[in-house]
Design a protein that fits this description.
It is a single chain. This protein is 0% helix and 47% strand. It is an all-beta fold. The strands form two sheets. Strands 2, 4, 5, 6, 9, 10 and 11 form a seven-stranded mixed beta sheet that branches. A four-stranded antiparallel beta sheet has the order 1-3-8-7, with no helix packed on it. The protein is globular.
Length: 127
């Protein structure tokens, strides 16, 4: 069974930057897309960004557009989320997830589209 491992979380001041990594391994077949989600305390999990592996199309939540960038290093089976101009409201546990089966690109933000999840990495933005 495949797995996803996130890393790169930490604590930063507002305006700072972080780069999250998600490394996949052990999958016997490819996946359609890989997404980043986040969950803040007391809130529901929300979609942050998605990269469609088949066509390279990226999607972003409105709240992070222009500040976050998702990109992939296929040679290392790693997808990154570059986060800049971080705000306190970006504080959350960030998860990556892969979509292997019933993939609908127009529903990239729906967590039910994703089949495997990482364990999460904490991002804290505070002064």
């Amino acid at each position: 069974q495949g797995q996803l491992v996130e890393s790169g979380g930490g604590s930063v001041h507002p305006g700072g930057s972080l780069r999250l990594s998600c490394t996949t391994s052990g999958f016997s077949s490819g996946y359609y897309a890989i997404g980043w989600f986040r969950q803040a305390p007391g809130k529901e999990r929300e979609a942050v960004s998605c990269l469609s592996v088949t066509d390279g199309i990226t999607n972003y939540a409105e709240s992070v557009k222009g500040r976050f960038t998702i990109f992939r290093d296929s040679a290392e089976n790693t997808v990154y989320l570059q986060m800049s101009s971080l705000k306190p409201e970006d504080t959350a546990v960030y998860y990556c997830a892969t979509a292997h089966y019933n993939w609908w690109p127009t529903r990239w933000f729906d967590s039910h589209m994703y089949d495997y999840w990482g364990q999460g990495t904490q991002v804290t933005v505070s002064s």
